[in-house]
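Bug report

Summary: structure tokens for Sigma-70 family RNA polymerase sigma factor differ between web form and batch submission.
Environment: batch mode, default settings.
Steps: 1) Submit the sequence below via batch. 2) Compare with the web form result.

Sequence submitted:
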Amino acid sequence: MKEDPDRGVSRRGNDSAAEGDDVERALTVSSSEREAYDAFVEEHAQEVYNIAMVLTGDRFRADELAQEAFLKLYRSLRHFDPDRSLRNWLYTVLKNLYIDSWRRENRMKTSSIDEPVSLGGGSSVPFQLESPEPDPERAVGSNEVAVIVRDAVSRLPKKYSMAVALCDLEGLTYEEISEVMECSIGTVRSRIHRGRKLLRERLAHVAPQLLGYTPA
């Protein structure tokens, strides 16, 4: 997935004034800063897309959400605190953009990552993949396993799916996840524990042979 801030602006149909601001912004960014930004995007594009996919369950929406997060990062480079983790800040932006977009689309339904959700069936999950269940017989390689596990994670209640994805799929520490999700480390531990339990229950139905598999 190639991230292009200018293409992202055009696709979202922002007005000419906003586009003009981006042109001015590009002219004032030093070449070294732009190179650093491009390198950061290249390094983290796939993992940001993966988290967006877990949150949205839709490839187009995930791509759009990831591009929007990178665009917001680009516009804020000169104001970013260098003592903070840029990656963690980006994940926080991604989470907040998802919540905002979900609330806009659902208006009166304001359930979010930080609000109570039903732990029963898949009906409590705002977004789910539209593709059919993966065939367990096809899980013969690491790619197939990753697809099945990521799909199962995406179907968890969102406050659990993001915590599990950040920890088990992207390798963030509890402290980093606490910063991203803006909650205590104790809450992070609880969400990961509960999320993993729900994940195992789901895998027991769709791919029981993976119950001993721990995402890398």
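Above is the batch result. After comparison, the two runs are identical; trailing whitespace caused the diff. The chain has a mean pLDDT of 70. The domain at 122-210 is CATH 1.10.10.10 (Arc Repressor Mutant, subunit A).
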